[in-house]
Amino acid sequence: MSDKTTPPAGETPEAVETEQVPVEQRAPEAPVAQADPPPAANRVLREILTSNWLISLLAIVVALLIGAILIAVTDPAVQKAAGYFFARPGDTFRAIWESVSGAYVSLFQGAVYNPKRGDFVNAIKPLTETLTFATPLITAGLAVALTFRVGMFNIGGRGQILVAAACAGWVSWSIDLPAPLHILLATVAACVGGAVWAGIAGVLKARTGAHEVIVTIMLNYVAFYLISYLLKTPGALQAPGANTPKSPPALPSAVYPTLSDLLGVGSYRLHLGFLFAIIATIWLWYLLNRSSMGFRFRAVGENPHAARVAGISVTRVYIVAMLLSGGLMGLAGASQVLGTTTTGFAAGVDAGIGFDAITVALLGRSKPWGVFFSGILFGALKAGGYTMQASQGIPIDIVLVVQSVIVLLIAAPPLVRSIFRLPRPDAEPPARRKRTTATPEAVTK
Amino acid sequence: MTTTAPAPAASAPIVHEKALVRSWKTPIILGVFALVALLMAFVFPNSGETTFTLSTTVDAIQLAPLVVPTQITVIVVAVLLVLAALGAVAFVRFGPGRAPLWISVVFAVLFLFAFLTWVAADKNIPVPGMLVGTLALSVPLIFGALGGVISERGGVVNIAIEGQLLFGAFSAAIIGSITGQPVIALIAAMVGAMLVSFVLAAFSIKYLVDQVIVGVVLNVLVVGLTSFFYSKVLTSDPSLNSPVKFPIWPIPGLSEIPILGPVLFRQTVIVYIMYIAVFLVWFGLFKTRWGLRLRAVGEHPQAADTVGINVNRTRFWNVALAGAVVGIGGAYYTLDVVGQFGKEMTNGAGFIALAAVIFGRWDPIRATLAGLLFGFATNLQSVLGIIGSPVPSDFMLMLPYVVTIFAVAGLVGVSRAPAADGTPYIKS
C-alpha cells in the first residue's frame, strides 16, 4: 500500500538509485560520499541497529552481576563474615549468597509474581505493577527512539513530560466533560504540550542549527522552573487553598480507568495508559517501517546529505520528528497525571522518566517493539526495586546503576565481546583500526 | 590568523574594502532594558530610601553604608541608561557599525544598580554578602566550565560534568573522613572525577560510542552509585561523611581591601586554586605547545595526525585532565561550602557549567565570566527572595538556561563549537 501512496520525491531509495545509475556516472560519486561522511549520530545509529540480541542479554547479565557485587559489599552481614574469612571462608560465601539471592528474589517477587500474597489475583499484582511502571517508560522510550532514527537526540524528556503533565492536569480539573471525551481531551492536551516543548528544539535546530542536545537539556530546566512557578501560583496550577506547591486532583471523569475497574477484582493500578502505549508502539512501527514519512525519517537518519540530494526536506523532517517525539513524551506525562498520580502532582511528577527513556530506547535498539520490551524490563526493575528497598533495605538507586551499566555495555559491543571472548564480526570499527595500524609497520619493515 | 592572505596577493595593490556590518542587536537590547528602567522610574515608582551595606563587622576598614533616596536615584540612573542606549545607537549608525563591549558592561552595572535600588526601597542590600554568595555558587560552575572547555577543545563533548562534580564531591567526603586530611581528600576528588573521565574517554575514544550518550548515561550511573552508597553506607555510619573542611586563609594585605578584599581573598585554598586554574588553562590553551596541540586535535584531527600528533592519546589524557579539574569543583562542596556529602547535592550545577562553556564560546576566560554571571543570577534570586521581589525567584533561576538557548540559537552573539567537537577520530 505504501508503495502507491508515497510521493515520488521522497521515494527513490539509495540502493535502487546506485543500481540503476550507469557505472560511468556513479564513479565520481564515490569520492564525494567519502568527503562528506554522515555525522557521528548516524553512524552510532547504525551500530545500535546492527549489534545482536546476544549482546543485550550478556549486558543484562553483567549489569546484574555488578549489582550483586554492590549489594554484597555493602551488606553488614557479609562484612562481618569477611572479617574472619580465612578462618571460615564458607561463612562469607554463604552470607554473600543469602544477601544477593535475597535481594534478587525480592526483586522478582516485586516485579512478577509473589506467591506469598495468597490467591492468584493478589499474587500476580506485582506483574501489573511492572506494567504500570513500564507504561510511561515505553511511550517516552518510543519518543527517544523516534529521534534516534532521525539521527537526533531528545534529552528533553523531563521538560516535555512536565509541560505535558501541566497541560493534561489543567484540562483534567478545570473542564467538566463526560468521561471518554474528557480522557481523550486531556490526553490530547498532554501530547500537544509535549510536542510544543520539543518543537522549540526542532525549530531551533532546523532554522539556526542550534544543537538539539543543548537546547533540550536547557529546556528541561526552563520547564522545571516554569512548572514550579505555576504550581506555586494560585489560579494557575496550584490547588485552591493549598500552601504547598501541588496541583488539585484530576476530576474522576478524566482519570484513566484501571484494570480493576474493568475486571472488578483486585487492586491493580494498571490503567488505560498501557493500552495507549501498545497503540503507540504499533503506530510507531507502522510509521517507521510502512509509511513514506517513516522512510524519509530513516533516510535522514542514515545520511542527511544523501537525503537532501534525494529531495527530502531535512529541516522539515527535523521539526516533524521533534514534534512527534514530544507528542509521545506527552503521552508519558499524561499517563503519570491521569493514570498513577491522580491526586494532584508536584514538580517531581516526571520521576526521572525522561532520562530513563534514553536507556530504554538504547536497550530497545530504537526499534518500536524492542523499546516496548525493554520498557517492560526497566518497569520490572523499578517495581522490583521498590520491593527490594522495602523488604531488604537495598536502596532503589541500585536500579539506576544496573540500568546505566546495561546501556553502557550495549552501546559498546566490542567491550562485551572482549569480556566474553566472543568472535568479532568483520564490520566492527576496532577491527578496521587494527588493520590500518598494522599496515604502516609492514611498510617500515 | 590575520596574516593568511588570499592567494592572488602578488597582483596589483589591493585596496581592502571594509564591509560595514551594522549590528543593531546591542542597541535594541539596551533600548528594551532602558525602557524597563523608565517604567521602574515613572510608572511603578517606589519611594523611600535604599541602603547598601558595604562592609561586614569583621572587616578591617569599615565603610559607612551607602544610603540613597530611591525614587530620585532610579530616575537619574534611568536617564543615564537612556543616554547609554542612545550612545550605542550612535556607535552603530555613525561609528564603527557595532556598539563596543564597554558600553554594554557599563549599561549592565547601571541597570543592576537601578534595579536593586528600586527593589529594596526602605530596605537593606548587603553587598558583601551578595558577592560572597555569588562566588560560592560560582566556584563549582567555574571548575566545571574549565573542565568542559579543556575536554571540548580537544573534541570530546563533556555532558558528564555533572557526574564528575558529584563523584568528586563524594570521593572527597569519604577520603576526607577516613584520613582527616583535606589535601588528600582534594586529591581523591580529582582522582574520583578522573575515573569518570576515564570511562567517558574509553567509551567515546576507544569504543566509539556516541559522546552524548556516554555522558548522559554516566551522569545516571554516578547518581545511582553515590546515592546507593549514601543511603546504604553513609547514613548508617555518619563518621564516613564528616570530612575535615579546608580552613579559611585570609591573604594578608589583599584581604583588607574594602568590599572586594574579603570576598576574593578571605577564602579557602580551593578558591585560590581556582584563580590560578583559570589563568593556567587560558595560558596553556593559547600560549603553549600543549594548548596548540589540543586545539588542533579538536579543530582538525586529520591535520593534527598528519603532523604527527597522536590524536586519540591527546584526547584521552586531556579528557582525564578535564575530569581532574572538575573534581576540584566537586571537592568545593564537601570540603568547603557544605561540609558533607548529600544525595544529588550538585543539583544540576554540571549542566549550568555546560551552559557556561557554550555561553563562554569555549574560551576559559569567557566561560569563567559566564560562570560568575550564572552564579550571580542564582544568588540574586535568593537575595531577592529575602527582600521580597516582584520577579518570581523561579524566573531568576531559569535565566542561565534561557540565556544559553539564546546563545546557541545565535540570537546573542555567535557561539561556534570546535569543528571536530563530538566526532570520534578514526584513523584512515
UniProtKB/TrEMBL annotation, chain A:
Record region (Disordered): 1-38, 426-445
Membrane topology: Multi-pass membrane protein
Subcellular location: Cell membrane
InterPro entries in alphabetical order: ABC_transp_permease
Keywords assigned by UniProt, alphabetized: Cell membrane, Membrane, Transmembrane, Transmembrane helix
Membrane spanning stretches: 53-74, 133-152, 159-175, 181-201, 213-231, 268-288, 317-338, 344-363, 370-388, 394-416
CDD domains associated with the record: TM_PBP1_transp_TpRbsC_like
Pfam (any one): BPD_transp_2
Keyword Cell membrane (UniProt): yes
The name this protein goes by in its record: ABC transporter permease
Species of the source: Protaetiibacter mangrovi
